[in-house]
Amino acid sequence: MTTQIAAFDAKQKLSELLNRAHGGETIVITRHGVPYAKLVPIEAPANREEAKSNLMERLRHQVSLNLPPVPREQLYERDEL
Length: 81
Prior knowledge:
By secondary structure, this protein is of the alpha+beta class. It contains four helices and three strands, in the order βααββαα.
């Protein structure tokens, strides 16, 4: 559902508009009848446990290179020109 509201009214009712957007509503903010902005709900965050499980599964299938650790100082060394 999309609702239009004037910028002046949107300033007065921002908290209410945020709650409505959180509930899934899209709000178009107008200035002198011309659409200027759209307040839309953000996508729900991914299920944390599912994301962690997917990451761990991907890591299990990666090849281990077994490289020796690199000292921090060596990471920041630059070749002199």
